[in-house]
Design a protein that fits this description.
about 70 residues, mainly beta, 5 strands
Length: about 70
């Protein structure tokens, strides 16, 4: 699993297998955003990552549904 950093551009590319995934999150699959809080203090692969999505607000997502977009 990659290490996520604040300011990285990411895509919600699939539904997560994590128990914290909620059905409403399905609407965000395929959207891109910027990591605003990677929770690097814990660096826990189970921790949720805070992502700001354009025109959709800021949400916390499990890491296994995110992938970094190379610019």
């Amino acid at each position: 699993m990659p290490t996520f950093r604040r300011g990285q551009k990411v895509e919600i590319f699939r539904k997560s297998n994590d128990e914290s995934w909620e059905n409403y999150m399905d609407q965000y699959i395929g959207l891109q955003g910027i990591i605003t809080d990677p929770d690097t203090s814990k660096n826990d692969p189970e921790a949720l990552i805070e992502v700001t999505l354009e025109d959709k607000g800021t949400h916390r997502f499990p890491q296994d549904c995110l992938r970094v977009i190379e610019e």
